[in-house]
Protein 1
Amino acid sequence: MESSNPSTESSGTRKEWSFPPPLHKIIFFLVTTLSAFLQLHYSNQTPPVEQSYIMQAFFVALSVYSTSLAIEYELQTHGSSHLDNIKRMTLLLGVLPLVLLMLILCPLYGLLTFASWAIYLVRVTLSLYQEYPKLLTHVSGWMLDVLKRKFTREEKQLPLSL
């Protein structure tokens, strides 16, 4: 019996997936919620200078997370063999903006969460240590191909009518 789901093939070899995955939806929700709390927390006062550095790090971390999420999506659509490693790193990068927001809102709890995030980062990095050269080669090659396609133009010949 064939499935009526358009995301599966008749042989059933292709997995069904939605994007973004549920964990990323939770990260998006928490970043939005904590950002609103941050706005409420500093509605009547100016944040200290240290926290402006943390906010800059937050924006950089959020940008890196968004980029890694886009890379995960592209590799998922092309069926990469490094997809599991990319997923782990993307989730790890997605938690960093949350940790930085917690560091601003509740400094003591933020330090504890940042320390646990750093320990988990070391653990994941050590577990993927052998895979990093292959992973970086694969992702950088893919990104160069995408950039090459985006920035090179083919000159189109207009038909000449006489």
Protein 2
Amino acid sequence: MNQLKLSVIVVLLIFLSACGVAEFFIKRTVNGLEDKIVDEFSAYADFTAEQDREIELFARDTANWVRSNRLPLLVKHLEQTAADLERNGRLSETTWRDFVLFLEDPMVLSQAPDVVYRLADLAYSLDSQQTQQVLDRLSEDFSESLAERQDQTADDRHDKIIKGTKQIFKAIGIKRSSSQLKQARTMLQNRHDYAEQNIASMIQNHTSFTELLTDKGENPSEFRARFLAQWKVAERPPSESVPDAWEHNFVVSYGMMNYLLQDLTNAEQIDAVQGVLDYAALFRELSTTDIQLGSNTLNQLKHTIYDSPGSMPVSLK
């Protein structure tokens, strides 16, 4: 379910944007998360009214999980980042490691099994026609995602890292020169690329979820257990699936980050600390809002089409 993951990542990472109205978009995204999830699911099949209600409840529970668990963790990491910057003008290895581990797997919905079980129950309730509709949509989305992943090169990934890093720095008041960014880009050449392993995992996840929907078995409880187990596999981050390569790349990224943080002026350091704390305060505020069912009705949402529909849990890799 790529759109679900994208929605959550937008919530957690939109602060990286250099947009001057970032706060507006952050609040708009967080407060509309449940409607985005409903909209994503509504496109997969012709659901009954009872199933529509279950989708709404899943969306509510997922959004509340983000607010109650993931946003507070993000606040913690931002506050630790600010403390490091204020104290030393750079990040400790522990701070950077914890933050990177969080950002590479910001959702971890399997830690809220009741939420995943709700989705499993919905999948189990699908009749044969609905199941085929979902499978057809999954296949279509998977093919698009796979083609996009296969077309991306290591250089494309490195360029994306530099672009994101530049946006992060700009958003908190740090400007790096072209030569500094070029050197940082050169440092990334030392990364180990594990795209092939990621693609293999993506294919396996798609196959596994397809098999789950095709053969649900006769016992709903057993299906729940199988669904959650596969969800955990799909959520498995690179730090666990390719630990040696991940550790090597972490060292590279840590060196690059602190290279870019060296020689901060006093004014840049003060602005950076305050900028990070401002975002921490914003996410803390948003984490205290409990979700009720969205104001949009499902009938209205069914006429809304996202520009970038994604795939089901397969894309969580």
Protein 3
Amino acid sequence: MNIAVPIQAPKPAAGHIARVHDGTGMPVVFIPGFLETTDIWSSLLRRTRPFLPECHALSLPGHPPWVPEPDDHLTDDWANTIAETLEDLGPKGVRLVGHSTGGLVALEIARLRPDLVKDVLLIGALHAGDVGGHKTWTHAAAEMPWIGPFLLSAALKAWLRSEESFRAGLASSMADRAGLFDVPVDMREMMRSACPRTLHALLQWMSHRDGADLSDISAPVASVIGTRDAVISPHHQIDTLRLLGNSSATLVPTGHLPFLERPDLFDPLFLGWLSRRTPN
């Protein structure tokens, strides 16, 4: 089994961002998806380490190592607050890589701060909270303002109950389950400290995204789309590109986690994106 690259938890003052690789060049910020920790990127970082610039990983609200304040809740401008934190990473801007919900967050930051975000790489990303009308239990939880956090808490406990249930949950999103061997073993333990109330607030924020403002994004957006993705349909992901002005896509025969399922296909795509000249 591969050994995961350790990712240190950021201090609260760092805006829930951790440096994961020292290098030169414009910083790249990796944003994981819903119910993922920043460790999800470990195997990709390990495999491509010789070619990486300075890299950071951002934890989503409610996800470890997110450090909640007393009476923690998600304000309407939380994405803008995170963008302000990213300003400290590089005077010339940053590049964003977002998986699933992390892709939605990356697009929101790019929309809010065109001066800061130079380009975006989406992986299995959504652009609207309803995911093209494909309702899941997470959307049902978002629509229940009082009982939603309790449903999330119960679902998390069931998923994290054992190593087998944890891996079974991840496997359901994969077309090639060989990628399970690259899932960091620490992710299950870290997710035990997730905050259901803040996770619910994040779901509610997602539920209000409809993609109507994607045309405001000026940064180039590239997308890697798994043709066998059962979580975010390929059609929904392609619709994202139709709503953007400057975008491109590559289709790969994987499920929702191409960087774990087929490194042989994903890594060259990632390194090709990394080598592109970014706009000034």
Protein 4
Amino acid sequence: MSLIPTLADELSLEIIRLAATPVYEVCDEDPNPHYCYSTALSLARVSSNFYVEVMPILLDTVSLRTRQSLLAFQRLIHKINSRQSPLAHRGVDFPRLIQKSRIYSKEIYGNTADTPSGDYLDYKPVYDVLKNARAMGIHVDSTYHLLYNALDERGVPADDWTCRDALFWGGWTKWKELTCSIGGLAFLRQLKRLTIWIDDKSHKPSDDPRGLPAWTRTIPFHHMPNLTHFACTLTGSSEAHTPPTRMMVYIAPPSALGQDRHVIEQWILNPLDRHGVVVEFSPRQYSTSTSLEEAYFCGDGDRAWEEASRRLALLGDYQGP
């Protein structure tokens, strides 16, 4: 059965893709945290054929902006894994889609003495949410606890932990919770890509000629022997409330990978190594409170790897994205 009877399937699919793609830039223009998904959700209800085409788009980036959304996503994963959900019989491979998802989290705070029993976070299911993500975006000021508590609940990540790509963003990145736990250290050892976006005027720029901020020297790269990709925000304007506009991207060259597993740490410590590539954030009308959030939603992290890889390929020293 045709998706749209009067149109060719190729054109129908393109129309559905464009209509279902969330408009992340307007997420904060509505009190409903899922406002950007409303069109995709409406299309998924049109027919079973629409549903099959829309769900991969809808699950490309999973935005967990409230405690309730996290709990709901946990229940979905539990039902799919236990084959209790009729969703598994509608022609959509949900486990595969979730493995390809980018999981983004913000404004989900930890349990307190006043947390209602129905909203209490059990961190064991959080492990199941994060373990198979294509990439995770963690807001360090409000959801960092999801990662380190989930890892602590499980201990050393088992063979089922496949997420190797992490982005931390916010006011500052803390490392003690990961470096002081068995699960956290195992997570760091498995990382292949690390992105850190910090928008904090309290940190002075370093005297590094590449423009790398001083805080990059506090990152525990010695615990990340498999890391091959690193990106970070560069110091923005000295004017107050000006968000970063550039990031430094480093992709380890193949020639260096065979010599030392801590190649990125060596690059950080060597101010004369100019292998890194400066990439601009996509032009956008940022608001001061959500600039980095919008950048994540709109794919600036993935685009940075692609742009750096393209430019390094032109120089003849390239490690694929």
